[in-house]
UniProtKB/TrEMBL annotation:
It comes from Sphingomonas ursincola. The chain crosses the membrane at residues 132-151, 177-200, 206-234, 241-265, 452-473. This is DUF3526 domain-containing protein. InterPro entries: DUF3526. One of its GO terms (cellular component) is plasma membrane.
């Protein structure tokens, strides 16, 4: 152990004397610090803007004057997805999924205002965030710092000199890996500081922040071990550099993008246009509440008349139009829910496949763990859509219920021709104030921790494989006569 520490100290001193190494470390630290500050600032501004916009739209809905309830159904309101608890560290899918939903009767709208659709194509390559720095840039820096750590010693003939002083293969490899690990810790410091600050701001997130830090520590540990092992196995420093840059390009850049494209082809998600056409066709099949001769709603009316022992809807003890609207909304909402469930099942299957493909790229595994921990993953977005749809349905049915109970049937039938009847159908604005505000909370830390188990297990497998390669490199050095 003392020999390994001595070798690590010598390697670190060599790094400090190298201008290239110093510039690389300083640049990464600067980028990481800039990413932490800008991401935190942007997410704080986004959180404030969304909270204010949600409060404003809720207040605007409640401030509407006396109206017919069905006009309020079409007036609608908005639901905004709150910023994830640790989104300043990893914004995840936030830029691509949209954050705003318009909630109205008879329709289920798509989320809009995704930053990637509103910005240049550079956003799609990767935002400068602490997570992006650790996932993409930190491994590349480690490659340039460590590719020659042992290959250089071999080329200079100093490996045998180290062996002559009693240093074994384990001490040499361990010392070089330890020095590179110190550089990795430095690379992680600003990003982890940002993560710690987010956890301090929200103490309930401390456990998740620790798991996220663990995932990135494991990810960079893989790179440290692999870089050191490749440097030991390569015939020359140049060969080690070419091999490691190729590995970085494949593992960090090529595989994640190719895997995402392949998953989209293997498990395709229907387009919004195709889904809209399919829903329209199903709506015609299940029934149209606006068509008095529709079979489903004719049977629905006959059932109500029989239950209350009357022959005309005008004799029912409630406004039939409101009850009819409730039944129509029930059918259409169930249809929307079914289609949303199918789309969510496909998207979840795609995400699970990408997690499994983490076996060929640890970048996929750490990305999944990071987004899940930050509550900026697809699962959180789908939970938001489900919560917004549940709120929309409840709001619309409450308004339809007001039409059934608070609007006289005769006035409702005559309001398009009789201004006085029309005024009587406008119920008090106080009713709008009884509609609760939309509220969405991200999955709890315990739920997110459970969802992180699989990607963390994949990262654990990569650590084991890296240790195996490290042990193989040690045996090769020993056989070489150290």
């Amino acid at each position: 152990m003392n020999q390994a520490l001595t070798i690590a100290g010598a390697e670190l001193r060599l790094m400090l004397r190298s201008r290239l190494a110093l510039v690389g470390i300083a640049t990464l630290l600067l980028l990481s610090a800039i990413a932490a500050v800008t991401s935190a600032t942007q997410m704080a501004a986004a959180a404030k803007m969304r909270a204010e916009a949600q409060a404003a739209t809720d207040a605007q809905f409640k401030a509407q004057p006396d109206r017919h309830p069905h006009r309020m159904v079409h007036y609608g309101t908005y639901a905004l997805r709150p910023v994830g608890p640790l989104a300043a560290f990893d914004p995840g899918v936030d830029a691509f999924t949209g954050t705003l939903l318009f909630l109205e009767g008879h329709r289920q709208n798509s989320a809009t205002f995704g930053a990637a659709r509103e910005s240049s194509d550079l956003v799609r390559f990767g935002q400068l965030t602490p997570a992006f720095v650790l996932q993409t840039l930190a491994p590349l820096l480690l490659v340039f710092l460590g590719f020659a750590s042992i290959a250089r010693e071999r080329e200079h003939g100093s490996l045998r000199a180290l062996a002559a002083y009693g240093a074994g293969a384990w001490s040499i490899l361990g010392g070089k890996a330890l020095a590179l690990g110190v550089a990795a810790v430095l690379a992680m410091a600003p990003a982890f500081a940002a993560l710690a600050w987010a956890a301090v701001q929200q103490p309930g997130e401390a456990g998740i922040a620790a798991l996220t830090a663990l995932s990135y520590s494991g990810y960079l540990l893989v790179w440290v071990l692999v870089i050191t092992a490749v440097s030991a196995l390569a015939a020359s420093a140049q060969g080690a550099l070419v091999t490691l840059i190729a590995a970085w390009a494949i593992v960090v850049v090529l595989v994640p993008r190719a895997a995402a494209a392949w998953v989209g082809v293997a498990e395709p998600l229907p387009s919004r246009v195709d889904t809209e056409f399919a829903i329209a066709a199903d709506l015609r099949r299940i029934g149209d509440s606006h068509n008095p001769n529709d079979p489903h709603f004719s049977a629905f009316k006959a059932k109500l008349l029989k239950r209350y022992g009357v022959t005309r809807v005008e004799d029912l003890p409630f406004n039939y139009r409101g009850v009819l609207a409730q039944e129509g909304e029930r059918l259409t909402s169930q249809l929307f829910k079914d289609y949303a469930a199918r789309a969510a099942a496909i998207q979840n299957a795609q995400t699970d496949t990408l997690t499994a493909l983490g076996i060929i790229s640890p970048a996929l595994a750490v990305r999944r763990a990071s987004m899940t921990g930050a509550a900026t993953d697809l699962g959180t977005h789908l939970a938001f859509l489900a919560a917004a749809e549940a709120y929309r349905y409840d709001m619309v049915q409450k308004l339809n219920g007001l039409q059934a109970s608070a609007v006289a049937s005769a006035d409702d039938a005559a309001r398009s021709k009789d201004p006085i009847a029309d005024r009587r159908t406008r119920i008090s604005a106080d009713f709008w104030k009884t509609i609760p505000d939309f509220d969405f909370s991200a999955p709890s830390p315990a739920e997110r921790a459970g969802a992180m188990v699989m990607p963390l297990a994949v990262l654990g497998l990569w650590v084991a494989l890296a240790i195996g390669l490290f042990a193989f490199a040690r045996r090769r050095l020993e056989r070489a006569g150290l």
